[in-house]
Amino acid sequence: MSTYLMPLTGGVLLGVSAMWLLLSLGRIAGISGIAWGSLAGPERVWRTLFLMGLLLGGLLTHSVIGQPVPAESTTPLWLIATSGLLVGLGTRMGGGCTSGHGVCGLGRRSPRSLVATLTFMTMGVITVFIMQSMVGGAL
Amino acid sequence: MKAWPALLSGVLFGLGLTLAGMSDPAKVLGFLDITGAWIPDLVFVMGGAVVVTFFITPLVTARKAPLLASAFSLPSKQLLDRRLVGGAVLFGIGWGLSGYCPGPALVSLLYGYDSTVVFCLAMLAGMALEGPLSRMFASS
Question: pTM, whole model, 2 decimals?
Answer without folding.
Answer: 0.96
